[in-house]
Amino acid sequence: MKTSATQVLIVGAGPTGLVLALWLRRLGVDLRIIDKAPGPGETSRAIAVQARTLEFYRQLGIVDDVLAAGIRVERLAVRTPSGIAATLKLGDFGAGLSRYPFAFALPQDIHERILVRHLEKAGVAVERRAELMSFEQDAAGVTATVVKDGAGEVIRAAYLCGADGASSTVRHGVKLGFPGGTYEQSFYVADVEVEGTIARDGLNVCLDTHGFAIVLPVRQSGSVRLIGIVPAENTAEEKITFEGIRAEVERITGVTVKAVNWFSTYRLHHRVAERFRVGRVFIAGDAGHIHSPAGGQGMNTGIGDAVNLGWKLAAVVGGRADARLIDSYEPERIAFARRLVASTDRAFRVLTSRSVLAGLWRRYLMPRMIALLVATPAGARFAFRTVSQIGITYRDRGGAGQVRGGDRLPYVDALSGDNFAPLSSLDWQVHVYGAASPAFRAALTKTGIPVHAFPFTPAAAEAGFGRDAIYLVRPDGHVAMATVTQDPAPFLRYIEAFAISPGVRPCP
């Protein structure tokens, strides 16, 4: 049997696995990525791409291609059988919080092809029809047996990463439990051509006493996505068809379906794996957490897993950090996954409950509450923070102004350029909003970590930065630590504790 070696073996070539591969490759890691499917997906599946994901894509240098392929969702309308009950402008509802203050839709099949193309440009091809059969690990690495097109191969890797979905072979291989449950309702999803007053650039949430539905544009060609609960009278049918539920779907959504491009029904689960790491084996994305699609968080959370794991693995594999750096992957990401599953579960139960009281609340009171929430700029910004994932924090060391260690670096724009531009280095850096003293710069010089000074503007103050405070920023754009004073000692101790050695030029 053929044998080979690599630094990282990734199992699964969905968005999570592809982003992990892109990040690792940009930082010079030798890797292989396999998937048992013959090619990328052919259906739209996940469609919401949140602002935080677009920020990561800017760091990778691929955001322009992603934006060119998708659709900016300009508004959200809450619809009841009586008409439009509330409207939220989504075109710039996060203005000042991100370079991407809008809602954005991109079908997963197109999304994956963009990621694959950029990965191939970086010199890595997804190995298709390649299935992980078994693996074992020891103190030095992982030995995996893979079958590709009927031929076996043994791959020796320093680390194994499972991004292979909800029925993950990798998760099963390390015997991790996947506690949670399954929602009682059946759901439908369809990509369709429609007639009606539906706006092609808007998201419609349709609420009714007996259920709900979502109508969302997914392709520049004009098709829309329909998502909703299968009517109770149809759930017992051996095979649920769109024609069987057409009347109810059109009644709730207010559209007339001209053609059905794709239709499927499914059951939803809410689960989080017991752990995200066992020794040299990691899981990410749906392999570690699955939940309701409320808020369009699932795929974006997997991509966040990939970025968090990617920069840490690259640093350790490349000898630029102590192996203890990777220890933070599991606690940071599993804590967020658990919070997310709990919150989406609560929201989804309200949206899908068939009780009379919940139905009345959903149809009559919920639209009014949404209308009140979005009536002010503060409400719109709260909504943006909630869904965009810019509010994810790994609260850690120290703080200055309103920014604490673990927070995502707040975004500040200026005529001279925004403060996220230096993050394209995918490396450690120090930010100061004001002036960095010569003594501090001199002390940091020997670490190889660049110091970026930005003017302390009203926008910087509004974002929460302290004047002349020092912020150590991680490769993923999160603040590692912050201090009010410019004493270099805490930063030098932090850098020494993890043996951080930045400055390695990324691969193109």
Detailed description of the structure:
The chain is an alpha+beta fold and 508 residues long. It has three domains: 2-68 and 106-178 and 273-346, 3-Layer(bba) Sandwich (FAD/NAD(P)-binding domain); 71-103 and 183-269 and 355-373, 2-Layer Sandwich (D-Amino Acid Oxidase, Chain A, domain 2), CATH 3.30.9.10; 399-497, Glutaredoxin (3-Layer(aba) Sandwich), CATH 3.40.30.120. It is built from 13 helices and 24 strands. It has helices at residues 15-26, 51-60, 63-69, 108-121, 169-173, 242-253, 298-317, 329-352, 356-373, 377-388, 438-445, 458-463, 489-497, and strands at residues 2-11, 31-35, 71-73, 75-80, 83-89, 103-105, 127-128, 130-138, 141-148, 151-162, 180-195, 202-208, 211-217, 224-229, 256-272, 277-278, 281-283, 289-290, 399-400, 403-404, 429-433, 451-454, 470-473, 479-483. The strands form five sheets. Strands 1, 2, 7, 8, 9, 10, 16 and 17 form an eight-stranded mixed β-sheet that branches. Helix 1 (15-26) runs parallel beside helix 7. The longest helix is centred in the C-terminal third of the chain and has 24 residues, at 329-352. The chain starts with a strand and ends in an 11-residue tail after the last helix. This is FAD-dependent monooxygenase. Its cofactor is FAD.
